[in-house]
Amino acid sequence: MSEIKKIKEQYTSKLDELLDQNKLNIIKTELFGKNGIISTRFKQLGSINEKERKSYATELNLLKNELQELISKKNEEIQNEEINKKLNNDKIDVTLPGRSYFAGKIHPVSQVIDEVTSIFSEIGFSVEEGPDIENEYYNFSALNTPDNHPARDMHDTFYLEHSKDLLLRTHTSPVQIRTMLKGKPPFKIIAPGRTYRHDSDQTHSPMFHQLEGLHIDKNINMGHLKGCLYYFVKKFFEVDKVKIRFRPSHFPFTEPSAEVDIGYKIQDGKIKIGEGDKWLEILGCGMVHPNVLKNAKVNPKQFQGYAFGVGIDRLAMLKYGINDLRAFFESDIRWLEFYGFDPLDIPTNYRGLSR
Ligand code: DAH
Predict the structure, then answer these.
(1) CA of 67 to the centre of ligand 1 (A)
(2) Strands 244-251 and 254-267
(3) Does pTM surpass 0.90?
(4) Are residues 159 and 281 in the same domain?
(5) Per-residue pLDDT averaged across 26-31, rounded?
């Protein structure tokens, strides 16, 4: 019997046996591995004399194809069998609890920006935005802030390296100027955004959030400012009555200027907004200074109005009972799990400040 036939017989019967994937792999290597029976025979073709070489090579090729086919058939058989085995053995336990998934939370600052935006848009304010990196002109000069004003000091303001002109905006008020310069009065806008100051303790963070408001039209007076702020505070804190106090103050960009306090009291360890005899400052405001209007190409003889600036983080702390501002920006997922909001939840429950 020729050598080729012998190999064929031996391996056809081997491949006919009951095999698992491991055994099949061993046979594959025996035949076609680097030093396998078939591979070495191919390598030796060159040393066979020319007359026999051709027919030997043909036979060898045939053998190779036949064995490869048998191997791939066997391979398929083994895999089918494994699948069947699995299907028979695996049972689904319908009583097992489902896999839980982790849903993200809305950060209290984002939540408050959404709430505040929706309150003001109901009474006709539209939303404007400005850049975090501002120039000195929009942040200070155009807002009637004198050159020697303490706010311009390096100790309070982050100036960009190598630049006397560029800084991280210290308030959202420059958006007033940007808005007026790009349009024509009347203006009725709010501008939420990030602001920066050289400050850090339990209630101050170097980066914080403000909301600017600006309403310019013919015949706008302080009564409109008062009405607008009463409306806002009542809506935001979800109370029917609220005590508000306008305290005379000074800002370079408003005349007259006021700071606004809201009344509160502590009841059963929780803060109650709108009543009581304690006062909390929540915002700065006033009638826009004629110089500001002039710098923004608005004629102060024809148009006037009010502006205000609220600390958004402060609002969030008050409404949702969070007493350390720094935690807002530490990106601790456990904090967010607790204080964050479900994306589809509309908040109506008022948690109050825990002490
Ligand atoms: N920009 C002021 C600040 O950051 C807040 C402010 C006060 C804004 C009075 C105003 C305003 O628009 O009229 O302290």
Answers:
(1) 86
(2) antiparallel
(3) no
(4) yes
(5) 91
Q: Whose CA is nearest to atom 8 of ligand 1?
A: 309
pLDDT in tens, 113-162: 999 999 999 999 999 999 999 999 999 999 999 888 877 777 788 999 87
Distance, CA of 12 to CA of 183 (rounded, Å) = 89
Q: What is the CATH number of the domain that holds 263?
A: 3.30.930.10
Domain membership flag for residue 247: yes
Atom 4, ligand 1: residue with shortest CA distance: 171
Instruction: Choose one of 125, 134, 152, 171 to mutate for the ligand 1 pocket test, by most ligand atoms within 8 angstroms of C-beta.
Output: 171
Whether residue 25 is found in the same domain as residue 164: no
For residue 74, give its domain range: 3-89
Mutate to test the pocket of ligand 1, among 120, 251, 257 (most ligand atoms within 8 A of CB): 251
Which among 89, 118, 140 is the end of a domain?
A: 89
pLDDT at 353 over 70: no
Nearest CA to ligand 1 atom 7: 284
Q: Which residue from 144, 220, 253 has its CB within 8 A of the most atoms of ligand 1, so it is best to mutate?
A: 253
**How far, in Å, is the centroid of ligand 1 from the Cα of 118?**
21
Nearest to 304, CA basis, from 209, 226, 225, 232: 225
At residue 345, the pLDDT reads 60
Q: What is the pLDDT of residues 63-98, one digit of tens each?
A: 989 999 999 999 999 999 989 988 888 888 888 888
Q: Helix and strand tally (H, E) in the chain?
A: 11, 10
Q: At 65, is the secondary structure helix, strand, or coil?
A: helix
Q: How far apart are CA 206 and CA 132, in angstroms?
A: 13
Q: How many domains does the structure of the chain reveal? A: 2
